[in-house]
Amino acid sequence: MHNTVKNLLDIQNNIKVNLNKFNIDSSPNIIAVSKTFKIDTILPLIEYGHSDYGENKVQEAVEKWTEIKKINPKIKLHMIGKLQTNKVKFAVQLFDYIHSVDNKKLAKKIADEQSKVNKKIKIFLQVNIGGENQKSGVNKNELMELVSYCKEIDLDLIGLMCIPPLNIDPVGYFVEMNKLNKEFGFTELSMGMSSDFITAVKYSATYIRIGSSIFGPRS
Known about the structure:
Layout: H1 3-22, E1 29-33, H2 39-48, E2 52-55, H3 58-71, E3 76-79, H4 88-94, E4 97-101, H5 104-116, E5 122-127, H6 143-152, E6 156-162, H7 171-183, E7 188-190, H8 197-202, E8 207-210, H9 212-215
Parallel strand pairs: 1-2, 1-8, 2-3, 3-4, 4-5, 5-6, 6-7
Helix pairs in contact: 3-4, 4-5
């Protein structure tokens, strides 16, 4: 068994054990964050049957995934990085989910481009839950306005996403995200990475984004 598959199975088992502890019924979707890794490294996971992959650069994703997705229609590709409006056209054609929508201009561009190709992308709004100046994401005080706008322009809004501040216990941020997500009536919540995914699952994450724990450290 390839290391990446073994790592994925270890993560799934770890989650299963903790779901029992937390008394949670449904298991989260694991997005294998494949950004910067070559397709040869990712292929064992694809062959095993894993379907969700995360990329943060449109050009890299287009080069890596265009042909693979034609052969493997079950693959779901997640845009988890900052999306520039000038790359939206290409992102809409390739990705199934966008986790990083944080402003009206980007939302409108996605709505325009997906209508041209008759496709509905599933959208998460990225919340800057720690109020960090250097980080992308909508301020939580402006979230209601952005949610309303996205609904107005008929985006398929399914939930919220966050990346908590580094080196700080994420529990408080995950609790707040879970509360916000419920207040807006969303069913999906994208949060948790290699270092904190078990905590994220405890607070109702339905999509977790895991890179290094599956693929190893990036070179």
